[in-house]
Amino acid sequence: LSAIEGGHFFDITYQVLSWVMVGEFTLGLPLNLSVLYIFIFRYKFWKNKAIFLFNIVVADFLLVGCLPFKIHHYQHNLRRSEDTVLCKIMLFMLFLNRGASIAFLITMSLDRYFNVVHLGRRNFVKVFKKSPQISVIIWILLLPLTIPTMVTTFECCNSHGRVKETYLHDVTDTFREIVFFSQIIIPYIILVYCTVRIVNRLRKKTVGEKTKLRRAVCLVTSVVVVFSFCFLPCTIARAALLFVRLKNWQDAENIAVQWYDALMVLSYSDCLLDPLIYCFSNSGFKDVYISTFYRLFCLDKILKLQTINIMNVS
Predict the structure, then answer these.
(1) Yes or no: is domain 2-281 CATH 3.30.1330.60?
(2) Which residue numbers delimit the G-protein coupled receptors family 1 profile domain (predicted)?
(3) What are residue 287's phi and psi, to 5 degrees?
(4) Per the confidence metrics, is the pTM higher than 0.70?
(5) Torsion sign across C-alpha atoms 144, 223, 105, 17
């Protein structure tokens, strides 16, 4: 009876998660399409030193493109695709998306940190962000960290601690877990450090210099919020899953797996939160976006206010 109840709860969990992803996809696709349109056709990112921001948009599109497949599997009460090739491609894309998003967000935060805390010194990040070649190199460097998801000797999603068939299998699983945790924990420590230093710098500055500093604080704070909301919960859940799996606590593992998958679905909402970072980090992009998509709304609002004023005068 408990097994039947557990299976029923499993089905309900993944049905709910599939509809959460439907909402993320429904909101994320038009939002990211509009952002992409602005960056290419209106803002011209290559002229406005927004190459890193554009790469975050590309990374978000990788994630949005994976969601329909995840939705299909979850609605059929499957954690992953039964097609091994498709499963590994999905994992590869998701790992690549996460690594790229984190890499470019960290680079942007470091750029603001050096501009504020070490103003006047040579800012190597500023030199990097002007060069498209650097972005290509970052993507290439991410590939070796993502390749372990393509090795055929591990079970999709998580196999560490379950079966140790070969030495290569064990090394591959260990390396993948190290990459997973280090790409969250190390950047998070860097972000917190940058945020604290920028905030302290803001307190010491005079009134006339605070506008630029406040914008820098908004940027690094927004990145920390995105990390805390999207990436930290699933990282903690994965650590818990590994712990109960190594202890061979099967009942606890069944629950931990569902919590981990649920928090991974929560992490997909970074494709909705990243546009907030675009606004905080680049006021020019925000102005172009608003003037493009809210022009009719603003004109209508202005006309209504003018009508009200005319009526009040008369």
Answers:
(1) no
(2) 31-278
(3) -65, -40
(4) yes
(5) positive
